[in-house]
Amino acid sequence: MQFFFLLTVILLLICTCAYIRSLAPSLLDRNKTGLLGIFWKCARIGERKSPYVAICCIVMAFSILFIQ
């Protein structure tokens, strides 16, 4: 159950970072290394793997609504 919550948080982090980068790219682009570089990396994953991230969001929403 805790693994499921961890996956949910990671998926939300990826989606949020990709959305923020689409609105204000300079906000995440200036921090490509270090601790804040995690957000830049999540944004890159969300941009490059967007079909897979979208499928994961749909599956996660289905499992939250109908399975739990």
Automatic annotation (TrEMBL):
It is found in: Golgi apparatus membrane. Keywords: Golgi apparatus, Membrane, Signal, Transmembrane, Transmembrane helix. GO terms for cellular component: Golgi membrane. The keyword Signal applies. The keyword Transmembrane applies. Its main location: Golgi. Pfam families: DUF1242. Belongs to the KISH family. This is Protein kish.
